[in-house]
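Our collaborator T.R. sent over the components below with a one-line note: 'Predict the complex.' Nothing else. No constraints on interfaces, no templates requested, no preferences about which chain binds where. So this is a plain run: every listed entity goes in together, and whatever single assembly comes back becomes the starting point for the next discussion.
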Amino acid sequence: MRPVYALSGGVSKFAKARPDKTFQAIVKEAYDYAIADIGIDFPTFTRAVDGSVASYFSDHFSRQLMAGIMAQDYLGLVPKPSHRVEGGGATGGLCFQEAWKSIASGHMDVCAAYGFETMSHVETWKGNEFIALASDVSWDYPVGGFYSGYYAMMVTRHMKEYGTTVEQMAAVSVKNHLNAYHNPYAQKRNRYTIDDVRNSPMVAWPLTRLDICVMSDGAAAVIFASEEGVERLEAAGAEIPRPLVQVTGIGRGTDAMRMSDRPHVDYETFMQDYATDQERATEETRDHYRALWERGTRYPGVHSFRAGRTAGNMAYKHAGITDPLAELDFVELHDAYTSSELQTYEDLGLCRYGEGGAFAASGKAFMPGIDYGLDLTSDPVCPVNPSGGLIACGHPVGATGLMQGVFAIWQLQNTIGKHFGDETLQVADARRGAIHSHAGTGTYVTVSILEREGNR
Amino acid sequence: MSDARREETLGGFVVHGVPFPVETDPDALAFLKRMTPIQIEQQYSITYLHSYGQDSPWFAGASNKKLLASREPDSGYTYATPRGHDMYTGRETEWIDVTDRKATVHAFTVCYFGSEEFLPDTPFVLALIEYEGVNTLFLTRLIGLDHTQASLEWIGREVQPRFLRNSKLKPTDVYFVPA
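Returned assembly:
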């Protein structure tokens, strides 16, 4: 595989509804921004790009099949090669990685990845029904198909096994909403307290409305290139900042569609098949896990996302990361629920299984320099969702994983201030970050590592 | 300032005639760029002929007040939610009757909102059930608990299946109640 660079990106304003434009024109907002950011004009880029990958989750939302080719057409990219990818909530992350593959394999030298969702075309509870059709329609959907309910069940098990609290989850909501206060692309920019989160309407016990992301209309786009692609674009007049941002690791995992079918493996199998190298390396951590298993924990059960652990381990190995908390400067992860952010800390090895709640409330995942109004016990170590994540930015499904990629590129280019008009969310000297995209109840998960070229 | 607001709904009057400039002179055409979008309602409904395929015997069993599960014949690995083939050996599973197995709550939630189809049922309790000697779980509705008293203490509580007298040939033909 040859080096792949993520050169630039663009994000449309995420909003509850964008009736002002069709989905193709919303995609073009993000796409045009990405092109403009490398200082090149539309016709020149069209000549230089080899093809694209399109992502959107649901044909139901727009009542339009083949929406991918309609965007390709509108962007003036026909007859160049393209395909649409879909994988639930991970659709955007899969798109990011498919575009990476197009470059890494040598099939293309310049590839555009674009994704979108227009979820406002149906009423909220019909939208929830469409999303719930991503669960097994024979067995899960008819019982009361509702993803917030599924995630709530997962976290009640996490709470029971690990002592996780609703206040720890609420700390994630406070963090992400307040981060987004400084992100003009975000849909929700508010200062909340733990009490605000807990007192908002209960959706699925114990998750309240402020524990859950919202539906959105929006689009995002990322431009990838090989070394040859960078040369081609620069020969055409592009101004591509140095150091380049390289995608140095990708990983993916899957799990059983029905969470009821997830296995409950023993300690030995967990340590052999799923533990990180870091976890296997210390007696203290092995003791931690032995104690969990003696208390009845089995893995992954419904409290953990095996697909996330698999994707993380794969991406870390690819990128040469052995201590993710120390070696990542930030993470943009799929926080469709505060509970799933907390669970994902564990899957990604930012803390051990069973410690996600304490980690969430410690302050280690918060941004420095922001007063969250919380009594945090630790200094920030690795900001998680400095953008505000899905909870505050919104979750136009096919765009979300690409949005994470765009924000990661800007962090590593040190250009958050330029794009946000506010430096607050710029992670100081960001050299390496991870993006994580996750489909319903952890069925598909992608993890991609981006870093400044020459970081190592 | 209060954030109270009326619920938004679709529907309303059919409007004949849309405002548009009387003359399409350059100024009028340029003004079209400043128009708000036209939004229309589109109806879409469909009836599917859905097959339960190899899982069909489970629904026949529930209609006759029997709770079935599927088991890999050699390893004995047993699925509470049926699977026609075992995920580890790839072999075809066999049916077993687990109606009288001890059952407990593994995880649960109270849904105060839901998909449109299930909004009339809210609030309802969703639960994942463990059967004794069975390796995987079963998603169901839990009836007979006070949803306002939801507590982690519910996890581990013994429950038992009940069956609808008039089967709907859905997984909700069985539900669970405290034992």
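Summary for T.R.: Chain B touches chain A through 49 residues (CB under 8 Å).
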